[in-house]
């Protein structure tokens, strides 16, 4: 914890570190993500690289060269939905939590997203009060609840749906 942590957008050379942290996240907190360890472990390098390219982006926190947290943005496509995007995959390694890294990561995603969307959507599994409080403190507002959004280990989990209205700053839509 004594080292500085840097947050930056991931590039193609980061794909293996991204894969490793993503798989760790899916094992660590399976109820926080819409995909499973099995699904993501089968993704090709090309599929992972697509998550890092163009308007899509993943930001990561690094300490002493190790990737310890991440958060992603994915824009919607098509003329009727391209003004919207999704915050996804927010994760900070357990031993790094409580240091403000998730806030820094989500702020980086918001900064990037504001150049590509007018509205950013997010979801939080019911019971994840830390994530909900963080998102609300950054301006997200609750817009609904999706019952039975996830089915993990024989248990259904509801999801709180959130939205962040961003200032129109000439997005590339």
From TrEMBL:
- Keywords on record: Acyltransferase, Transferase
Which parts form a coiled-coil structure per UniProt?
none
Q: List the molecular function annotations (GO) for this entry.
A: acyltransferase activity, transferring groups other than amino-acyl groups
Q: Which residues form the N-acetyltransferase domain?
A: 5-167
Q: What is this protein called?
A: GNAT family N-acetyltransferase
* Species in which this protein is naturally found: Kaistia nematophila
């Amino acid at each position: 914890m004594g080292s500085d942590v840097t947050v930056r957008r991931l590039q193609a050379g980061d794909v293996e570190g991204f894969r490793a942290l993503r798989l760790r996240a899916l094992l660590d907190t399976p109820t926080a993500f819409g995909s499973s360890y099995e699904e993501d472990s089968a993704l090709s390098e090309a599929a992972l690289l697509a998550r890092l390219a163009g308007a899509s982006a993943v930001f990561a926190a690094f300490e002493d060269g190790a990737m310890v947290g991440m958060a992603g943005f994915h824009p919607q496509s098509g003329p009727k939905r391209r003004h919207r995007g999704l915050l996804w995959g927010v994760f900070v390694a357990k031993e790094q939590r409580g240091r403000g890294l998730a806030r820094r990561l989500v702020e980086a995603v918001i900064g990037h997203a504001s150049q590509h969307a007018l509205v950013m959507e997010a979801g939080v599994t019911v019971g994840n009060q830390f994530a909900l409080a963080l998102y609300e403190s950054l301006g997200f507002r609750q817009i609904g609840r999706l019952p039975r959004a996830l089915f993990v280990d024989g248990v259904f989990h509801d999801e709180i749906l959130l939205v962040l209205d961003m200032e129109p700053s000439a997005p590339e839509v």
